[in-house]
Amino acid sequence: MESDPTLIVCPVRAESAEDIDPILQTLVSLQASAPETMVLVVDDRSPAPQAQLLEVAAAELNCAYVMQLDGEGHSAAVNVGLTAAVEHGMDVCIVAPGLLFESANWLGRLQARTGTDGEPAAVAGGAILEAGGTIRQAGYFFSLFRRAWAARLRNVPEELLDVADPLLCPVSSELQFIRRGWIERVGGYDNLMEGPHAALDYCLRIQAEGGQCVLEPTVRARALKASDGEPDPAAPSEGRLRLKHANMSFQRWSPEIVS
Fold first, then answer.
1. What digits encode the pLDDT tens for the residues 97-146?
2. How does DSSP classify residue 32?
3. Per its UniProt record, what SUPFAM superfamilies does this chain match (predicted)?
4. Structurally, how many domains does the chain consist of?
5. Owning domain of residue 97
């Protein structure tokens, strides 16, 4: 069966002129590494001067641009892209601004990723690398010792990914491929959650419906600026995540190798 086309969704917000350049670098990288794929820039209500620059730049780079007006925040912006993709019969790949792709066919590898059952994975993600050569995160795991979610392989050399196998685990919305059928099945992101917790919530909802989320270690994006990939245990979204999934055993996300 022929797979659905993919829409790359890049949720952005530029508070100042300094925020424009990392966004543009990501769009250029997407055009170079996935030239046949449509890119939708969803602007999370940037101030008017920055929004105008982003709209013009997106057009010059052959990217679609839309200002999201149905809510506020990253999750609301993601949902604009998910809705647009489903309406046009497309899968989605969320790509955060400030990332660069250094190899071709990264999207094809996410599209081809299967789960332990041999079926196409409901969600597939890649690793995010820091500029200095360490890993920011390669998905998430639940620490039984800390009783909290944490970033996999955080601060270890990126070479470890060269010997890593695909792994069942929640994956970050920094680089997250979602199949259309699963968007139709579980809906969009929770608008009341942000950051890693929103991505964790989405993957847990997929899991609850019988889908699989898989980290594909050969797919990597390098960040222009350093950032902490850990879910913040003090964030308001942490409490909502625990409340929503209070009856779920997180042990089902234990590392399971996918051949």
1. 999 999 989 999 999 999 999 999 999 999 999 999 999 999 999 887 77
2. H
3. Nucleotide-diphospho-sugar transferases
4. 1
5. 6-253
